[in-house]
Automatic annotation (TrEMBL), chain B:
Belongs to the bacterial solute-binding protein 1 family. It is found in: Periplasm. Keywords: Periplasm, Signal, Sugar transport, Transport. The keyword Transferase does not apply. The lineage of its organism: Bacteria, Pseudomonadati, Pseudomonadota, Alphaproteobacteria, Hyphomicrobiales. Residues 1-24 form the signal peptide. GO terms for cellular component: periplasmic space. This is Probable sugar-binding periplasmic protein. It holds the Pfam family SBP_bac_1. The keyword Ribosomal protein does not apply. It comes from Phyllobacterium endophyticum. It comes from the Bacteria.
Length: 300, 414
């Protein structure tokens, strides 16, 4: 009779192989996160010190108009980018899926912006949108002397310029992901829908999209991560200006920590960013990844 | 075949190594002087150093402003790959490096040449001292408190050439009519600079010192400071919408070409006029202290020499240090850079109108102001910059709101 192996030693090789990753996760992600939260309650300036000041850094943070403007901008940027990149990306993918000619060419064209760094995207759009030699000048030269397009110079609109540039860069990727999802849909479903006389748009809306749920979730995660960390695009396109009208939280954190030597304040800001993400993420993750006993599947 | 090619590589590398040993010393000098006028000034230093014979200046310009270059320079020194010499700003840029014993001690050379006798204002040299020893060479004096104007732009608009800020504001409507931008400015630090100049020169030395040195909230909230915010509100009406993201030298070139009438910018702007071949007094003019209270702060650049294991390099460093303070170099370099020399005993006959005005102001030590960098932490400076740029861009923000927040910042400043 063979003895049952001691549980922690089962699959020992696999466990040893996973150790570096586990250590990385624990030290780098969990460890640094805890460190960040801890030091956000101190008065650390250039160098970290354990001089606790309670919620002082947070009080100052929410009294600083640059931070509140940053949060508002992130909300605008996030909602618009999310909505439009999903909608535009899906429509592009659906159009591409009509067995058109030169599909490869179009796919390359739409995906190309994603190969550029945000810095390049930012500069290109800065040139396009600057009143002195961009869109505004072209339209004026066409004869519309009073045409004005102050999207980069009027603080009320700059965040939308960032949304536009971000969409230009990101939609291609969404399209590629969606296209892959569409290609996975069995042709039989289309045939069945056609036999039943269901119009194409209804088929998409009520049959195809629900079937593509996993693809949508993947896309959502990728876009959301890109939204929260948006930084380089803003630096290249507007550098937060005019004034503070297009500031974003990541830039506030960077500036406070590295160029203004106020670690405590920067860490408090990043803790708030983390908390915001968690508030949105945790309920969703619980809902999405909860074990599904009821459907008759047995969890492994 | 393989054996021979390996031998060839080895032989070449030995040869290269030997060759670099033969040369007295290649001194790599890092700096961030990259705009037209600045590059010309760096070239003056390089060519006069090469002329001394033997050692060679290897230029290590780092593109971007000090905020980009400073971390690169510091991390190279900390990482054990020091350059021969490096530019930094006068003040506290290298304080930690000096404390860690990473810089060459220049005290012996300084005593021998008697630096303390001729460097003025003396606080420039004090900034280089740590525990009584000297670790850097100040090379120039830069001050923020200048306004550069293009007289031809005013003539073209049919307005009198202003001699102070108030006249400048009065002439603005005529300039606007002609399509000339009254005040050229650019990204955040330039706008913040406008405010700091106004505080010093429209407010006067007393107010400036009360706010910078004593961090007096009473002064910051008082009617005098309110007048500064009011003037700053005037200034935001004088800038063109295209100022967003503009570099300082682009703004200077707008003034240079007459597309803009004036710019409030430190005296480094004068280097740009020099490179373009413009003459002070005719093609352009300057209003030190906005023509109201002539007082200048005395920041500037200094050279530091990181410690090096190679004695040849140390020798070359001392030679460069001695050259930097020499009379000839001071004259030639500062003429190109548009800054003021650090020596009080040299003949600045060759200096242009504007530099002469600056030298004259500095001869009276009452006119010397501390700079923001000496008074405020970078955190406080950043808060003020956020406030001034927000105010400048958002015309709905009132003077009262801005001042209230200003008082708060000054109150928290350490």
């Amino acid at each position: 009779m063979s003895r049952r192996p001691f549980a922690p030693l089962r699959n020992l090789n696999a466990k040893i192989a996973a150790v570096p990753m586990i250590v990385t996760v624990l030290v780098v992600f969990v460890g640094c996160t805890l460190w960040t939260v801890l030091y956000s309650f101190t008065s650390s300036r250039s160098l970290p010190t354990l001089d606790f000041v309670g919620f002082d850094q947070y009080t100052r943070l929410f009294r600083t108009s640059r931070w509140t403007v940053s949060l508002k901008n992130l909300a605008i940027f996030g909602l618009l980018s999310l909505a439009f990149s999903l909608i535009i990306g899906f429509i592009l993918a659906a159009l591409m899926d009509q067995k058109i000619r030169f599909e490869n060419t179009f796919r390359t064209i739409f995906l190309y912006p994603h190969a550029l760094s945000f810095i390049v995207t930012g500069l290109v759009w800065q040139w396009i949108l600057t009143p002195a030699y961009g869109v505004q000048k072209v339209v004026r030269d066409l004869g519309f002397e009073t045409f004005s397009f102050p999207i980069l110079t009027d603080g009320r609109f700059t965040i939308y310029a960032i949304v536009i540039a971000g969409l230009w860069q990101g939609t291609g990727l969404v399209m590629a992901l969606m296209l892959a999802g569409l290609r996975n849909i069995d042709d039989e479903i289309w045939k069945a829908a056609r036999v039943d006389g269901i119009p194409a748009w209804k088929t998409y809306l009520f049959i195809i999209i629900p079937m593509m749920r996993p693809v949508f979730i993947t896309t959502l995660v990728i876009i959301s991560a890109a939204i929260v960390k948006v930084y380089d695009l803003v630096v290249a396109l507007t550098n937060g200006g005019p004034g503070i009208s297009s500031e974003v939280p990541a830039k506030y954190v960077y500036d406070l920590m590295f160029s203004r030597g106020n670690l405590g304040q920067g860490l408090a800001a990043s803790t708030i960013m983390l908390t915001t993400v968690l508030i949105i993420l945790v309920p969703w993750a619980l809902l999405e990844f909860r074990p599904r006993y009821r459907k008759g599947k047995i969890p492994k | 075949m393989r054996y021979r090619s390996i031998m060839a590589v080895l032989a070449t590398s030995t040869f290269l190594f030997a060759a670099s040993q033969v040369r007295a010393a290649d001194l790599e000098v890092t700096h961030w002087w990259t705009s037209g006028g600045e590059a010309a000034a760096a070239k003056v230093l390089a060519s006069s150093y090469d002329k001394l014979g033997g050692d060679k200046w290897v230029d290590g310009a780092i593109a971007g402003s000090g905020s980009t270059a400073r971390p690169i320079i510091v991390s190279r020194i900390l990482g054990g790959n020091p350059m021969g010499a490096t530019q930094l700003n006068t003040g506290r840029d290298a304080e930690d490096l000096v404390k860690a014993g990473l810089m060459t001690d220049l005290t012996e050379l300084a005593t021998k040449e008697g630096w303390a006798d001729f460097i003025r204002p003396s606080k420039l040299l004090d900034a280089c001292k740590y525990e009584g020893k000297i670790y850097c060479v100040p090379v120039n004096i830069h001050s923020w408190q200048w306004m550069w104007i293009n007289p031809n732009a005013f003539k073209q608009a049919g307005a009198a050439v202003p001699t102070n800020w108030q006249e400048f504001v009065a002439a603005a409507p005529k300039l606007k009519e002609k399509g000339i931008i009254p005040l050229a400015t650019g990204d955040a630090w330039q706008i913040d600079g406008v405010f700091r100049v106004m505080l010093a020169n429209l407010g006067g030395k007393d107010l400036y010192l009360k706010i910078l040195d004593q961090k007096s909230t009473e002064a910051a909230g008082g009617p005098e400071t309110k007048a500064i915010w009011q003037a700053f509100a005037d200034a935001r009406e004088l800038a063109d919408p295209g100022y967003v993201g503009r570099q300082w030298n682009e703004a200077t070139s707008l003034v240079l070409t007459g597309k803009a009438a004036g710019q409030i910018m430190g005296d480094w702007a004068q280097g740009e006029f020099g490179v373009a071949g413009k003459v002070a007094g005719t093609d352009y003019d300057c209003l030190p202290g906005l023509g109201v209270h002539p007082a200048l702060d005395t920041g500037g650049d200094a050279f530091y020499f990181p410690k090096n294991a190679n004695p040849e390099i140390t020798k070359a460093q001392l030679k460069l240090a001695s050259m930097l303070v020499s009379k000839e170099t001071q004259v030639a370099f500062n003429l190109a850079k548009g800054s003021l020399p650090i020596r009080g005993d040299i003949d600045m006959q060759a200096a242009n109108e504007c530099m002469k005005k600056g030298i004259k102001i500095l001869t009276d030590s009452n006119n010397v102001l501390p700079s923001y960098e000496q008074a405020f932490s970078s955190d406080t400076q950043g808060q003020i910059e956020d406030l001034t740029t927000e105010f400048f861009a958002d015309k709905t923000m009132t003077v009262e709101d801005a001042q209230a927040r200003y008082v708060e910042i000054i109150g928290e400043a350490k």
